[in-house]
Amino acid sequence: MKKLSLIFIFCIYANASNPISLQYIDIDVKHIYSNNKEEIYKIQREINKDCLNIPTTPESFENENISKNIPYECKKTLITTSGVIQPLFINDEIKTLSEIEVLDFIHNKSSKDPNSYALIDTRESSWFNQQTMPSSLNVPYEDLIYDEDFKDEFYKAYSKLGMKMVDLEKNIFDFSNAKTVVFFCNGPWCPISTNTIHFFLKLGYPSDKMMWYRGGMSEWNALSLSVTKKMK
Q1: Which residues pair with 28 in a beta bridge?
Q2: DSSP string spanning 95-129?
Q3: Which one of 6, 42, 89, 183 is at 20 to 30 Å from 189 when CA atoms are compared?
Q4: How far apart are CA 81 and CA 215, in angstroms?
Q5: Sign of CA dihedral 173, 171, 137, 80
């Protein structure tokens, strides 16, 4: 019994002191879809048993082998010929995160204090509703510019970030309750999240409250991390 207790304590300590261990546990989060439906997800590395014995050899990556011999569940691909490849760093102030650091942010920040922290999907709502990172909030880049026909979307986007409008005509906001956020989009070739960050820097959003997950959905998927279901 004493031995089991020591193992349990060690696991808790390892998880608290080493974010790398987060990939081996389930992170329970609540995800809210665009239709306000809520669902509980466990963020984890979802490794299909059928994928474990596929050898990582040059032959494995040949097109014929991929099409004929590799199960559908083991294929993690996304079209990457559009867009513009983004740099590793946006500037000296905005921190670029890896998957481990995003997991740490979700586990220790956004899931525990959603009023102060948020994971932000900057893509259009159709992408968000198709598939996204569990617990993320959708703040489409296109909603950040005021449009009389879409003013509800405009105000909703800013409220998700904890910002308040001071003067609409002069584009002045109150950032006193702005959340610390991690922005992402489709992948390293997707400029939407970087454009969003540059936009907010011009508005005056505190740079120390913004971070960037450059890998986006493509890298998240490639590493078999949990994603949401298509909204029904």
Answers
A1: 42
A2: EEE-HHHHHHHIIIIITT-TTTEEEEE-S-HHHHH
A3: 42
A4: 15
A5: negative
Structure tokens at 54: 């596929």
| Percent of the chain topping pLDDT 90 | 71
Quote the CA–CA distance of 173 and 144 in Å, as a whole number. Answer: 12
- The DSSP symbol for 25 reads S
Q: How far apart are CA 212 and CA 117, in angstroms?
A: 13
| Nearest residue to 122 (alpha-carbon basis) of 180, 186, 203 | 186
Identity at 48, one-letter amino acid code = N
Rounded distance, CA 133 to CA 27, Å? 12
Q: Tokens 């703040």 label which residue?
A: 139
Closest to 183 (Cα-Cα) out of 199, 173, 194, 174? 194
Q: Is 27 helix (H, G, I), strand (E, B) or coil?
A: strand
Cα–Cα distance, 202 to 190 (Å, whole number): 20
166 near 59, Cβ under 8 Å? no
d(CA 136, CA 154) in angstroms, rounded, equals: 18
Task: Select the more confidently predicted residue: 28 or 12.
Answer: 28
- For residue 193, count other CB atoms closer than 10 A to its CB: 25
Distance separating alpha carbons of residues 154 and 151, to the nearest angstrom: 5
3-state DSSP percent of the chain in helix, strand and coil, to 5: 40, 15, 40
pTM over 0.90: no
